[in-house]
Amino acid sequence: MAGSVFGLVRDQGIAHLFGAGPESDAFLVAWTVPEVAATVLIEDAMALLMVPAFSGALARGGGVSGLVRGTLPRLLALLAALTAALMAGAPWVVAALAPGLADPSAAVACTRLTAVTVFTFGLAGYLSAALRAHRRFVPPAAIYLAYNLGIIATFSALHTRYGVESAAAGVAVGGCLMVVVQLPAALREMGSLKKPRDAPHAPRRALGLALLAPVVLFTVSRQAQVLVERHFAAPLPAGAISHLNYAQKVAQLPMTLSVVICTVTFPAVSRALAEGDRDRARRRVERDLTLACVVVLIGTAYVIACAPQIIEVLFQRGEFTSSDTAATAAVMRVYALGLLGQSLVGALVRPYFSTARPTWYPAASMAVGLLVTAVADALAVGRWGAYGIAAGNAAGITVTAWLLLRGLGAHSIAVRARAIVPGLTRTLLSALVATVSGWLTATRMPGALSAAVVCGVVVPAAFTAAAVAVRVPELPYLLATVTRKARR
């Protein structure tokens, strides 16, 4: 969460210095590279592959040295080749990502700088997976804090001389810092490992193409939603890409917090499955899904209720004008309709890839959702512009979440979906009450800052009251946990 807060500070700095226009659009086209790299190499594919692999090795007796020797050198060679290819092909990459961009030269220069993240993010994601499997969460949690601090420091020092390219250089610096903050802990853990002892109940997880392909395809398809959005937004008036980006960055904070729950418990689920305890894994996944829904829907209610006030407080200064605030807030409200789907996809996909048995079902579900997004964007962009693109994103990811929830029992852990859906319905009702309460409060407050602060109290309080009234599951557990931590 500290990394996310500094991510907002980063976006505030970019908005202040470059506004929402041609310069920021050029940077955000190049920003597609670290966005895709982070999803594939840190958050999804690398974690979905390597956390279960490391967890399985530890379940066999604690040694991962053979796994490291067999995977890391090949990974680094592949990452280096991809980085070089991306730098050389930057003009073609920009043309494919944003074919309607008026002046692509700045985007090409920025893309060559951000291409470094393919190598650094890949190594950072590998180290992060190893540390999470060892229940070491602080160094992996620090990577986005280090990343964003590197970006902020670089463009703060260099923007007067290099313009928007200073922000792209900061991305390259931040990627290197991701590796630096994890390396000492990773070397300590790997240096103390024992030779593995094979356990009869823990089958080896072979990292071959059969396992790699469905994970990578799912991850790339999920991130391709951003590519589809920017493809349709590029011909719109200057600033449309920036409005979509700022709206997403703010609205995704509740989703990030909800998925943190599953990120921390993912190694526990993988270890339980490696040890043959499927019932323990099922209980953990069911609780994760319920808690993730509660957290993301509270955040969604807050975002929808006072979107203009949030954007004004965060971004309206310097080159970011009141018209940019109004456009971004409207887009953010539409985009927020898909936050529950985003959170559920992040939570549901982990059980699918926790076992050694590869499955194509998540990739197929994501492909269907991506198709829905593309079709909806194509139909809506001409009439509603950026708002239609945001609506297409929400529709596509919601379809994917529904498909993943529907197929979980047949393809992975036998989660009792019928037991989860009634609780989810009650949680949605509580979120609706909280949204109305927050909106009524925001419209009666005299200033943006006071409205954002007061709504930050009113929305959770209204949600809690409604949730108690309709008996939302897991709320007593969540409240007890918060109370216990507050006492500590």
Automatic annotation (TrEMBL):
Q: Where are the transmembrane segments?
A: 45-68, 75-94, 106-129, 141-160, 166-185, 206-224, 251-269, 289-311, 331-353, 360-380, 386-405, 417-442, 448-470
From which residue to which does the signal peptide run? none
Membrane topology designation: Multi-pass membrane protein
Q: Which InterPro entries match?
A: Lipid_II_flippase_MurJ/MviN, MurJ
Q: Where in the cell is it found?
A: Cell membrane
What keywords would UniProt list here? Cell membrane, Cell shape, Membrane, Peptidoglycan synthesis, Transmembrane, Transmembrane helix
Q: Which organism is it from?
A: Streptomyces polygonati
Q: What is this protein called?
A: Murein biosynthesis integral membrane protein MurJ
